[in-house]
Amino acid sequence: MAGGLRRAEFECRPRWLPGSYGAGLQVADTRIGRIGGLICGENTNPLARYTLIAQGEQIHNSSWPALWPTRRPAGGGNFNNVAANRLRAGAHSFEAKAFGIVCAGYMDDDMRDFLVQRDPAAAAVLDGSPRAASMFVDPTGAAIGDTLSDEEGIAYAQFDLNRCVEPKQFHDVVGYYNRFDVFSLNVNRVRHEPVSWTTPAPVVSPTTEDAAPVVEAASLAESR
Predict the structure, then answer these.
(1) How many domains does one find in the chain?
(2) What is the pLDDT of residue 9?
(3) Is residue 17 part of a domain?
(4) Quick one: three-class SS letters along 149-169?
(5) Starting at the edge strand that comes first in sequence, how are the strands of the sheet with 133-137 ordered?
(6) Segments forming the whole domain that contains residue 47
């Protein structure tokens, strides 16, 4: 993973909750550009996104689940993850003046059947919920390249990183378009441990050699 908050959710929580989230908020400087990334709803966290933008992120990778049902489809008003993911990816690329890779998971028939075998009532939810989409956005937030939805495959797009420069002349949220005299952000990269220990310092008794000069000095003072 190039960089990310590594927010723990659902079954991931027991493993990642004690971790160092801030340590993952780093942009990787690669031969094809400066790459950062966030997982799912982390892309809605403006402070996490700003941290990556401030490191000169040029390519942002956002990863998403294959579907995200928030209500039973029959009742309407379900979460439209395609629209929401597209909106968040476009907003970040527009603010960062960076290219965006929207990478969504894919639920194949085997995965769907496995879940339905465990709970037959899940069929209506899985079959009625919209599938996420994989796509690309440019530094203006516009969609470019291929789009994949509800199918497994490889999508392609061309990134010209020179296109990240001119938009920053219009808005640079980590440069002249910010007010560093008003706003500041501190990111804690210290790894957290589940327990810390406070142990009293041992009491060390003076040795005979250490005590001897004191006795001699006292004796000399008394003789005087």
Answers:
(1) 1
(2) 56
(3) yes
(4) ECCCCCCCCCCCHHHHCHHHH
(5) 28-30, 33-39, 59-64, 99-104, 133-137, 143-149
(6) 10-169
